[in-house]
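Subject: RRM domain-containing protein structure
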Amino acid sequence: MAFNGDGPFNKRMRTDGESVGQKSNVHYYTDNDYYTPDQNDGDNNGPYGGFSDYDNQPRRRKGEPETPNHVLLMTILNPAYPITVDVIHTICQPYGNVLRIVIFKKNGVQAMVEFDGIDPATRAREGLQGADIYSGCCTLRIEYAKPSKLNVYKNDAESWDFTNPNVGGGMNGQMGGGPRGGGGLFNSPMPDSGGLMGSGQGQGGPFMGGAGGPGGASLSAMGQPQPGLPQQGAVLMVYGLNKDKMNADRIFNLLCLYGNIVRIKFLKTKEGCAMVQMGDALAVERAVANLNNTTFFGCKMQLGYSKQAFLADVQQPYDLPDGTPSFKDYMGNKNNRFINPEMASKNRIQPPSKILHFFNTPPGLDEETLKQVFLEGEVVEPKSIKLFPSKTERSSSGLLEFNNISEALEALVVGNHAPIPNPNSKFPFIMKLCFSSSRHIPNKMAE
């Protein structure tokens, strides 16, 4: 993410169809303006998702001073890239604890952000006012909002209650992980790969906060589009997939070993071809370097770079042969393994091998239970299994050996993130797989 260095009112963004010197019919904001969204006709499906009580807030008149509040109203001008909860949280989190976010799009793109106090809200307003979320676009205009609390009825890409990760049944596959439910991405702070004071250089440009405030954290780890990378950006082309065996989740299971996955889209006009938006260009490079020309399910997979900066949402995806949707959004999925620096450092980048390492499985796991996962997925079961001596009673881990790399690849795309029943809880363990650097399974494991 690149923050433009201009102050709040040193510039005005043109709309896409406006040339230099042309007057704009787009309203923009000064210290004497306050914008209140139109009423949503009293329903609960309007821009606030059930926030009809906000619509009747009094409008601040010209010349009337603003009253500081811990809730901010952000208007995003020239929103050339998708604006989600992830994006808003990432730019706001450095200023203080964010409690709730609501994004609404009835009048352009706007967001309300509730902090845990007036001080962090004031810092965010001063630091972000007039800044560009991405270089040259997505300009922020920020006012104090009128509501004292945001009501969130559902955690998804456009609303999130950080005090209650299970509100509304979770993310339903978008920011939740595993078997559709549970916690979301924001149990840990967002990564900041560029530093807070503008000394870092991200892929979209220098981090320079608007109005002298601290710059925001880089969005590259979150998989946001990175301006300036049209030829080798964060979108990967995948060719040669077995159209009957592969789907979005199985692509995720394989590529998540090399970087965060944001969106996956199969191409209807090209069978066995998909596009994958990853967290950053480095993740794409790792995937290409390690997986290009690998063979599994009887097909040779080839990987390349897309010229697209990001994948747009597909509102009505078609069904793949197995009945699953051709497009899925994994932004914030907790099975992503590079969510923050601590998680990323635990990943060992390995090329495919015939030995898989499994972990996050129930204590006391037996070999038959493991074999059943692969049999149910209609792939070859491992020829050898080695359970590591347990250092804790909380989980188990070990190694799986297959006859060749192709069998191991098939087992990984099917078995990675498979639920394993937990005898001590109604919630299953989500088994995780990765390629091992071991060339064979030793007969005796070190105690």
